[in-house]
Amino acid sequence: xxxxxxxxxxxxxxxxxxxxxxxxxxxxxxxxxxxxxxxxxxxxxxxxxxxxxxxxxxxxxxxxxxxxxxxxxxxxxxxxxxxxxxxxxxxxxxxxxxxxxxxxxxxxxxxxxxxxxxxxxxxxxxxxxxxxxxxxxxxxxxxxxxxxxxxxxxxxxxxxxxxxxxxxxxxxxxxxxxxxxxxxxxxxxxxxxxxxxxxxxxxxxxxxxxxxxxxxxxxxxxxxxxxxxxxxxxxxxxxxxxxxxxxxxxxxxxxxxxxxxxxxxxxxxxxxxxxxxxxxxxxxxxxxxxxxxxxxxxxxxxxxxxxxxxxxxxxx
Length: 316
Description:
TIM Barrel
């Protein structure tokens, strides 16, 4: 048996513009969102979720996603995607000029009903027409399994239920799948065991992990995911986010915290940490309150070394 090694590269997907802002009381302007988007791109992140195409009454923070998509400056090599719940949302994304969309369904029947007013089986049935539309219009589709690690209403999600939905996505030809922890209930052992099983059972799938830091386990869960063979992770600038349908839900793990941790571990993300931190600071100013970023609060490890060296120079 060959010795396991840490991956050479880890991909960070920025979801702050969608999942980070969708639960904020203050609704940012299109210009503010575009400014954040430009900063995210400048930091080196190559996959960005620019918003969602859901009913504006349900999530008013995302009502201007079409305008954002039409006005944004597109940089070659950067993937711009949006979350869509159904065919209507996909059509809106296409009309706004996007060529990547993510279909999401909850593993939990109860959460799916609360969130989308449909059961998972009904959601998956509706995705077939989305895939057909995408194929005709040169749109790439990925999938997301919300509440994959646990549901506030039903408890821990059984592996069998996760696997059943994965197989339904594969029947539709969707091979990029995100396992989402919107409730923040996942733990490192669970993440490692489920991901190890999924990676082995479905080698054709490109897996993404999406962790909310509700109970301060997101960073440990990311490490467990890495050890299980997953190398793509979502993050949101300054740790913004939350789900309006989940009691006590906290934000996503802060992008800059993930980049800092991976950098300290010697793993390459291609992301400029200082620029990611600047994005997070700008987001905090725009929403009008601090986020949950540890490196913005305490500084980077390198900052401590720099400060100590400066102090030694003063004492000489």
